[in-house]
Amino acid sequence: MQSNISKLAKQLKESPDDSFLKFALALELLKVGQNNKALSLFKNILSSQPDYVGVYYHLGKLYEETGENNSALKCYKDGIAITTKLNDQHAKSELQGALINLEMELEDTL
Questions:
Q1: Total number of domains in the chain
Q2: Residue 18's pLDDT is what?
Q3: pLDDT, mean of residues 71-85
C-alpha cells in the first residue's frame, strides 16, 4: 500500500495540478489512516476544481468519521447541487443517499 502512496506522490510532484492524482492519493491515504493529509487533498481539489464530483461523497464521509456532521451535510448538499448542474444522476443519487442516511442518523440522536 505504501508503494501506491509513493508512486502517486511522485506522479503528483510531476503534475501538481492533476485532480485525479490528488483524488487517488487521498483515497490511498485514507486506507492507512492519514485522514488529515487526505482531507487537505480533498479540500484542495474542491477549491481548484469544484466540478470534480467524486470528492463530495468521500469528503462528506471523512467529515462524518471525524464527527463534523454539519460539514458533512454541507458537503453532500454542495455535491448534489454540482451533480444536478452537471446532470450526473449516478453521483447525485449516491450523495442523496448519504445525505438522507446522515440526516436520519442525526434525528435518531435527538
A1: 2
A2: 96
A3: 98
